[in-house]
């Protein structure tokens, strides 16, 4: 049915017709990044979703990100090209189990990484992203007891840099856990002058070799600002597209998995969104994100605190 269609032109036509904005995460296919109205990290994308006056948000990212857009902008139609675009961190934190964890620590507040379901957000006091977590934690009293979920690697990293002792939920991202320390050390030996930029979802044995640790946006800024001509990037490799576009003379190398290349570090959930599915979602305004009003209001509170506290 789609054969012969110029999908880019059709998406452009529908974007205008529907008064839609296309938001994309850095882990999306370059074709999608290039036609999006805005590309960013989770915090940037939630700010855009809250501020847009478009009637429709076509969210090219994973489901929890599109849910955040809907929670912040309930009057807008939010479509996700493939509703199966989940996240292993979200899957590692079932809401009923998280509710029990919370109940076991009644004197703690719950700080949750934005990579979780709306139901887990509704059980949380403050949401953080990797770009805002340190700033938010620094505003909490030193003796404030905190539980943090779902990412234990981000949580351990935050405990190290802030000196806190947050209790950690044992979740992890399958993509960032796939980097191999041995292969990374081999690569560093081949490129001794290349700095390493890593996402804090990487386990400690990867982060400890990094010259810069931060969100996707901050990894991008670091890579572009660095005087080095070769940079090793320890996060999902589709972000390299933006680096290569902005600095074509530099070499950006995706950190390797156990097989010695970065192909195993692609996010399988992000990859479910394709140009075809984006076209169909704009044409049919489905699959649509819907969240019950009770749940939405509960999840909105900690998201609003995130936006306030991240400045
Ligand atoms: P960022 O907020 O750094 O874009 O992270 C999103 C994500 O899913 C990382 O795996
Ligand atoms: Fe989730 Fe990991 Fe994919 Fe990010 S890279 S969306 S944390 S599975």
TrEMBL record:
Pfam families: NadA. Its EC number is 2.5.1.72. It catalyses: iminosuccinate + dihydroxyacetone phosphate = quinolinate + phosphate + 2 H2O + H(+). Its cofactor is [4Fe-4S] cluster. InterPro entries: NadA, NadA_sf, Quinolinate_synth_type2. Pathway: Cofactor biosynthesis; NAD(+) biosynthesis; quinolinate from iminoaspartate: step 1/1. SUPFAM superfamilies: NadA-like. GO terms for biological process: 'de novo' NAD+ biosynthetic process from L-aspartate. GO terms for molecular function: 4 iron, 4 sulfur cluster binding; metal ion binding; quinolinate synthetase A activity. It is found in: Cytoplasm. Its main location: cytoplasm. Binds 1 [4Fe-4S] cluster per subunit. It comes from the Bacteria. Iminosuccinate binds at residues 25, 42, 113-115, 130, 199-201, 216. Keywords: 4Fe-4S, Cytoplasm, Iron, Iron-sulfur, Metal-binding, Pyridine nucleotide biosynthesis, Transferase. One of its GO terms (cellular component) is cytosol. [4Fe-4S] cluster binds at residues 87, 173, 267. Belongs to the quinolinate synthase family. Type 2 subfamily. Catalyzes the condensation of iminoaspartate with dihydroxyacetone phosphate to form quinolinate. PANTHER family: QUINOLINATE SYNTHASE, CHLOROPLASTIC (PTHR30573:SF0), QUINOLINATE SYNTHETASE A (PTHR30573). This is Quinolinate synthase. It comes from Tardibacter chloracetimidivorans.
């Amino acid at each position: 049915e789609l054969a012969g269609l110029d999908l880019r032109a059709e998406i452009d036509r529908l974007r205008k017709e529907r008064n839609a904005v296309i938001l994309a995460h850095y882990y999306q296919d370059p074709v999608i990044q290039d036609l999006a109205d805005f590309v960013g990290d989770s915090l940037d994308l939630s700010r855009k979703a809250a501020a847009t006056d478009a009637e429709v948000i076509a969210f090219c990212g994973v489901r929890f990100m599109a849910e955040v857009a809907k929670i912040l902008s309930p009057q807008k139609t939010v479509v996700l090209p493939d509703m199966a675009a989940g996240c292993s961190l979200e899957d590692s934190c079932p809401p009923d189990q998280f509710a029990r964890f919370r109940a076991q620590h009644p004197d703690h507040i719950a700080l949750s990484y934005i990579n979780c379901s709306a139901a887990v957000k509704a059980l949380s006091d403050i949401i953080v992203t990797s770009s805002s977590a340190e700033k938010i934690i620094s505003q909490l009293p030193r003796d404030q007891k905190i539980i943090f979920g779902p990412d234990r690697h981000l949580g351990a990293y935050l405990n190290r840099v802030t000196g806190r002792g947050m209790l950690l939920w044992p979740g992890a991202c399958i993509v960032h856990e796939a980097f191999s320390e041995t292969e990374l050390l081999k690569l560093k030996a081949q490129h001794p002058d290349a700095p390493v930029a890593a996402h804090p979802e990487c386990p400690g044995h990867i982060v400890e070799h990094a010259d810069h640790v931060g969100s996707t946006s901050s990894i991008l800024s670091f890579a572009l600002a660095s005087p080095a001509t070769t940079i090793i990037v320890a996060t999902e490799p589709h972000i390299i597209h933006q680096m290569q576009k902005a600095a074509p003379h530099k070499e950006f190398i995706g950190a390797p998995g156990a097989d010695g290349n970065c192909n195993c570090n692609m996010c399988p959930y992000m990859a479910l969104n394709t140009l075809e599915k984006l076209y169909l979602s704009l044409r049919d305004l489905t699959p649509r994100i819907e969240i019950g009003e009770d749940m939405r209001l509960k999840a909105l509170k900690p998201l609003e605190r995130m936006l306030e506290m991240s400045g």
